[in-house]
């Protein structure tokens, strides 16, 4: 599902964020990407969803060689990946329903289909019935669930998350990671960047370790 081969990434101003990084995540797998702050975790996720491009090396995602992806295919490619952020990035002046519906509207889905898919996504994250509320009326854990529903509303094959429990206490973090595990049990490939050792220790998932831009291990 994901393969990085000898990937280097140098940002403008000369910072080498990644140096010869290679690893694979198989279809159906759940893996943690970990390492100290600045190790390059976010950079790896940005390469996978094509928010950044490598300076050298190859990135393959869901059968696509990203260097060869035609610009007109980009919107379709983005729908194959659900992305969850630490700070959930919800629109606070829009309802829960509208936040989850947004990716569908952007994709041109209309009418009853929108309602059906939004309510199904909210149901999967345990928020059915909360669709008319606004994000700021929800707890931090619930807001993160709305972010996950929005990421999953296209039923993507791959879910990537950048420090999804960074703003949550231990119990809520467990709930969120367990939710990712449930999606994984239903076939969604999951890659979670985190330095939350507690979560890594709690689950049987693969661990890919980075240190200062280098691979440490991918056991
Ligand atoms: P992590 O997610 O593990 O904390 P990042 O991928 O965010 O690591 O950062 C890796 C390195 O790249 C850091 O030194 C960071 O300062 C640098 N970096 C990240 N994004 C940019 C950018 N847009 N421009 C310049 N340097 C960046
Ligand atoms: P079905 O096709 O009957 O829904 P699946 O085995 O595909 O059965 O999915 C089981 C559960 O997981 C269902 O609730 C389904 O909606 C959900 N699910 C499966 N894949 C995804 C995905 N990529 N994104 C969101 N939910 C998914």
TrEMBL record:
GO molecular function terms attached to this record: ATP binding; ATP hydrolysis activity; transmembrane transporter activity
Function: Part of the ABC transporter FtsEX involved in cellular division. Important for assembly or stability of the septal ring.
Family that this chain belongs to: Belongs to the ABC transporter superfamily.
Membrane topology: Peripheral membrane protein
Cross-referenced InterPro entries: AAA+_ATPase (IPR003593), ABC_transporter-like_ATP-bd (IPR003439), ABC_transporter-like_CS (IPR017871), ABC_transpr_LolD-like (IPR015854), Cell_div_FtsE (IPR005286), P-loop_NTPase (IPR027417)
GO cellular component, one term: plasma membrane
Keyword S-adenosyl-L-methionine found: no
Keywords assigned by UniProt, alphabetized: ATP-binding, Cell cycle, Cell division, Cell membrane, Membrane, Nucleotide-binding
Protein name: Cell division ATP-binding protein FtsE
Subunit relationships: Homodimer. Forms a membrane-associated complex with FtsX.
BP-aspect Gene Ontology terms: cell division
Presence of the UniProt keyword Repeat in the record: no
Record PANTHER family: CELL DIVISION ATP-BINDING PROTEIN FTSE (PTHR24220:SF470), IMPORT ATP-BINDING PROTEIN (PTHR24220)
UniProt cross-references to PROSITE patterns, sorted A to Z: ABC_TRANSPORTER_1, ABC_TRANSPORTER_2
Localization: Cell inner membrane; Cell membrane
């Amino acid at each position: 599902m994901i393969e990085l081969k000898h990937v280097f990434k140098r940002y403008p101003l000369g910072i080498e964020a990644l140096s010869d990084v290679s690893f694979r995540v198989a279809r159906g797998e759940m893996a943690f990407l970990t390492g100290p702050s600045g190790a390059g975790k976010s950079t790896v996720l940005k390469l996978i969803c094509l928010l950044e491009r490598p300076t050298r090396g190859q990135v393959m995602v869901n059968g696509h060689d990203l260097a060869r992806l035609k610009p007109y295919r980009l919107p379709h490619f983005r729908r194959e990946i659900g992305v969850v952020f630490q700070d959930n990035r919800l629109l606070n002046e829009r309802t829960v329903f509208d936040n989850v519906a947004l990716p569908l509207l952007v994709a041109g889905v209309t009418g009853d289909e929108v309602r059906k898919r939004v309510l199904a996504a909210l149901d999967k994250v345990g928020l059915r019935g909360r669709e008319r509320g606004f994000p700021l009326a929800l707890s931090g854990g619930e807001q993160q669930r709305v972010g996950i529903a929005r990421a999953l509303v296209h039923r993507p094959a791959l879910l990537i998350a950048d420090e999804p429990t960074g703003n949550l206490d231990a119990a809520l973090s467990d709930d969120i990671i367990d939710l990712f595990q449930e999606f994984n049990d239903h076939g969604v490939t999951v890659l979670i960047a985190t330095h939350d050792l507690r979560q890594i220790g709690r689950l049987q998932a693969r661990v890919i370790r980075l240190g200062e831009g280098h691979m440490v291990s991918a056991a």
